[in-house]
UniProtKB/TrEMBL annotation:
Keywords: Hydrolase. GO terms for biological process: lipid biosynthetic process. GO terms for molecular function: hydrolase activity. It holds the Pfam family Thioesterase. The keyword Hydrolase applies. This is Thioesterase. Belongs to the thioesterase family. Residues 20-242 form the Thioesterase TesA-like domain. InterPro entries: AB_hydrolase_fold (IPR029058), TEII (IPR012223), TesA-like (IPR020802), Thioesterase (IPR001031). The keyword Hydrolase applies.
Length: 248
């Protein structure tokens, strides 16, 4: 798939199923480098590259989650179809969900499964942590959540590079409002860190009401960025829900 919107880190184009991965706020496609390697060669990971970061850093970042979703949906309908699933973490969970809604609304081929990680259901009240005023508060919140982005903030030059993207992403999160509509006809798997400071497990479980299909909730040790520390377990769980054999 040649596209400015997707990045492939492994030569797994012949994998039985593709996994379209949506990064968190401030994140880039490279956030899924480890998961891509862990799932190769059976699952072909295509990480979404939003504008405004890494090799797309000269493009203005989008400030609407639904605009991000629409852009990804438009890109997906242009490529040859094969079975695929979505994996979205934190902000990426909302973008993945809205992308699936758009494809379903127009009766277009969509994901066989949604894996929604580190985010509460969109029908809940807007989170106070999504609306952050000022760079100091934004930096403090990123540090509190941990993950690789927090370590980047220790470098003044890197901080100057990533702040515009963080502002745009958190602005998009703060302005997002869920619009009621029919539930998806897609199975959902919800993943969450047991000690996530902003997403209680019960709040994450609320996603299951957004599908007509049976779904499940999987918890992992760790906080908001449990994926970093629990990569082998996450990869095993992804393989299981996608019906792929466990890694040897």
């Amino acid at each position: 798939m040649e596209s400015r919107w997707f990045r492939r880190f492994e030569s797994t184009e012949r994998g039985e199923i593709a996994l379209i991965c949506f990064p968190h706020a401030g994140g880039a496609a490279s956030a899924y480098l480890g998961l891509s390697r862990a799932l190769a060669p059976d699952i072909d990971v295509l990480a979404v590259q939003y504008p405004g970061r890494q090799d797309r850093r000269l493009e203005p970042a989008l400030t609407s989650l639904t605009h991000m979703a629409r852009a990804v949906a438009e890109e997906l309908v242009l490529v040859p179809q094969r079975p695929y699933a979505f994996f979205g973490h934190s902000m990426g969970a909302i973008v993945a969900y809205e992308t699936a809604r758009i494809l379903s609304e127009f009766d277009l081929p969509t994901a066989h499964r949604l894996i929604l990680s580190g985010r509460g259901a969109p029908s809940t009240s807007p989170k106070a942590t999504d609306r952050i005023d000022g760079d100091a508060a934004l930096i403090a919140e990123i540090r509190r959540l941990g993950g690789t982005t927090g370590r980047v903030l220790d470098d003044p030059e890197l901080l100057e590079m990533v702040l515009p993207t963080l502002r745009a992403d958190y602005g998009a999160l703060g302005s997002y409002r869920w619009l009621p509509g029919p539930p998806l006809d897609i199975p959902l798997t919800v993943m969450v860190g047991a000690s996530d400071p902003i997403v209680p497990v019960d709040e994450a479980r609320g996603w299951l009401a957004h599908s007509t299909r049976p779904g499940d909730v999987v918890t992992f040790d760790g906080g908001h960025f449990y994926l970093d520390a629990q990569l082998p377990s996450v990869a095993d769980a992804v393989r299981s829900v996608l019906g792929q054999p466990a890694a040897v």
